[in-house]
Design a protein that fits this description.
Layout (H helix, E strand, L loop, with lengths): L1 E4 L4 H19 L12 E4 L3 H20 L10 H15 L4 E3 H10 L10 H12 L4 E3 L2 E6 L2 H12 L1 H6 L5 H8 L1 E2 L1 H8 L7 H14 L14 E2 L9 H8 L5 E2 L2 E6 L4 H14 L4 E2 L2 E2 L5 E5 L6 E8 L2 E8 L8 H18 L5 E6 L12 E2 H6 L2 E4 L4 E4 H9 L3
Parallel strand pairs: 1-2
Antiparallel strand pairs: 3-5, 4-5, 6-7, 8-14, 9-14, 9-15, 10-11, 12-13, 13-14, 15-16, 17-18
Helix pairs in contact: 12-13
């Protein structure tokens, strides 16, 4: 914001500057355009020296502000700016999601060339806008483009809001969701009806595809039907209760392999569990899939004598294998798969999360911090003292199931 001032003495000049800024704040008040204000510059039209210095400060300030933008220095076609403005206009008209065909028409109106021959420039524009967070566009789900990401957030919120749960308390489908994680079709329809500016006929399939892509819902590979499951909505279950229900008589357990993070949001654990569910069959008990908000159980072999358990506790992911046979196997491939999923998650969401590799003895509970030992420690020493059980464990008993080369 630049103001031009005439002659006055220094005191009057400072008072006028302050009055201008006070008037500006009062005029804009809570107006949306106030978000665009950064710094006010006052330029004298009677003092060339002051004017020159202030223009230098203004030029430097503009440069510094522009440099922080992700697209600083990029050579972009001017028609991209025109289409970007048109998208903002569509949002102002309360159009928060448009079809790909509508996007083609908007691009045509904004002088994008050769759209009848190729949509490559439009796709490049949409990907660019997606990368900087202005809209949501996926090349593999391109039926619709979400112009305002907040609209999609509203869609996701309708599945977890207590308000809608209370409004639809009469639906037994809520019990299926909370106790088993199964998201039934009737409940999906009722919830999506609550989202403003959402057309069930047009948007339902697209919304479900996006929720799958974000790992919010998943179809287990051992489902006979195309049922969706939503692990984050299942009631929490203690691992002791799961052990009692499944029974661990006669089984031997590996040590726990643990990734302890400096900070791990629960949603990221959900990504890990869903990634396993997409690729590995879930254990079933009494015709119910063994998936919970914080735990997933997966049979490793067809005979059911080996079961992998993956757990979340505060800022850590832990895994253990239960065995009902006499074999002593190495599960380094599963350990490596977990670490690879974490690496891919870091790339996908552009987050920098660090972790330590740790172990706990087989009889421990993974959720408890006491008794964890760093990987480097058990590799360096032949034995270590388990704080949780107050006894000595041979290091090879702790690491052999996860680090031995098979």
């Amino acid at each position: 914001m630049v103001f031009t001032c005439g002659e006055s003495n220094d005191i009057e000049r400072e008072e006028r500057k302050q009055n201008y800024q006070d008037h500006l704040r009062k005029t804009l008040s809570v107006h949306a355009k106030r978000r665009h204000l950064r710094k006010v510059h006052f330029v004298s039209n009677t003092s060339p020296i002051d004017r020159g210095e202030e223009f230098c400060r203004l030029r430097k300030d503009i440069f510094n502000k522009a440099r922080v933008f992700k697209n600083w220095g990029e050579n972009l076609p001017s028609r991209w700016i025109v289409l970007e403005k048109e998208i903002y206009r569509q949002i102002s008209l309360e159009k928060y999601a448009i079809s790909y065909d509508e996007a083609i028409q908007l691009a045509t109106d904004c002088s994008f060339p050769d759209l009848k021959v190729s949509n490559s420039e439009l796709d490049a524009f949409l990907k660019y806008e997606h990368d900087i967070g202005n809209l949501i566009y996926f090349e593999d789900i391109k039926d619709f483009i979400v112009l305002d990401p907040k609209w999609l957030v509203d869609v996701f919120k309708c599945f977890v809001s207590n308000q809608y749960k209370n409004e639809l308390i009469h639906m037994t489908e809520w019990s299926e969701l909370e106790n088993k994680g199964k998201l039934l079709k009737n409940l999906i329809v009722k919830l999506l009806e609550k989202v403003p500016y959402l057309s069930l006929n047009k948007h339902k399939q697209f919304v479900l595809q996006v929720m799958e892509k974000f790992d919010i819902i998943v179809t287990p590979i051992n489902c006979d039907t195309k049922d969706f499951y939503m692990p984050c909505m299942i009631k929490e279950v203690k691992i002791d209760d799961i052990i009692k229900e499944l029974g661990d008589e006669g089984c031997t357990k590996t040590s726990w392999f643990i990734l302890e993070f400096d900070f791990l949001p629960p949603s990221y654990f959900n990504h890990i569990v869903v990634s396993f569910v997409k690729r590995t069959k879930l254990l079933t008990k009494n015709d119910q899939l063994c998936i919970y908000r914080n735990i997933g159980l997966f049979p490793i072999n067809d005979s059911g004598t080996k079961v992998l358990i993956i757990c979340l506790s505060k800022n850590c992911i832990a895994m253990q294998v239960w065995q009902w046979n006499c074999e002593h196997d190495c599960y380094s491939d599963i350990k490596n798969k977990l670490m690879e999923l974490v690496r891919l998650m870091q790339l996908r969401y552009r987050i920098n999360i660090t972790y330590k590799k740790q172990f706990k003895c087989s009889e421990s509970i993974s959720m408890e911090h006491a008794g964890r030992v760093d990987c480097d420690t058990v590799l360096e020493y032949n034995e270590y003292r388990c704080i949780e059980h107050k006894k000595i464990h041979p290091s090879k008993d702790i690491i052999s199931s996860w680090l031995t080369v098979c």
